[in-house]
Design a protein that fits this description.
Order of helices and strands: EEEHHEEHEHEH
Number of domains: 1
Shape: globular
InterPro entries: Macro_dom, Macro_dom-like
Organism: Paenibacillus algorifonticola
Bound molecules: ligand AR6
Strand content: 15-25%
Number of strands: 7
CATH class: Alpha Beta
CATH architecture: 3-Layer(aba) Sandwich
Number of helices: 5
CATH superfamily: Leucine Aminopeptidase, subunit E, domain 1
Mean pLDDT: 95
Helix content: 40-55%
CATH topology: Leucine Aminopeptidase, subunit E, domain 1
Strand order of the largest sheet: 1-2-7-6-3-5-4
Pfam families: Macro
Radius of gyration: 15 Å
Protein name: O-acetyl-ADP-ribose deacetylase (Regulator of RNase III), contains Macro domain
Amino acid sequence: MRKEYNPTSIELIHGDITKSEVDCIVNAANTSLLGGGGVDGAIHRAGGSEILEQCKQIRARQGGCAVGEAVITTAGKLNSKYVIHTIGPVWNDGKNNEEEKLQSCYINILELACKHNIRSIAFPNISTGIYRFPKIVAAQIALKSVKNYIELHSAIDRIQFVCFDEENYQIYQKMLEESGM
Ligand code: AR6
């Protein structure tokens, strides 16, 4: 599924983000930046050791990455130039600013992408796996944050939302059809 929104093309993909052909793919990492399971494991496996080496250098400089923030590395052997690693919030009961923290992830990623002249970017469904964020709310936040950003900045040509699981894919498909995007 593809939609045009201003000068930005929005694509919905059902699949593996490590196969995306974009300037930058986003990783749903943890504060250690040392890898893990889920999409984080898949990106490090497919991208090779160069990504981990750069994550370790960032750790040495700034002691990892906080929830809601984002850092950038090479994409190693992947088809992309960069990986932006963000740390989504763990969902507890929704009363710990989880929604604001997830929104910060998207905003910080897009700001970092613009700084690096990234024209195309692929997002996984941050926090909706191991971190248990409710999928509908997470999709609403993702779409709203991206929409708000591209309305103000026209620097990104192509945005992919890559849904690995069927449930997220169905949610995004419905929301994109119903939204003004
Ligand atoms: N491509 C695209 N999406 C994927 C892929 C893939 N190859 N694999 C999984 N997903 P998760 P989180 C989806 O658990 O919830 C890690 O251990 C998955 O279906 O990867 O933010 C980190 O190190 C789900 O919709 O990330 C952290 O410790 C989405 O990616 C922790 O998990 C996010 O699921 C982060 O948890």
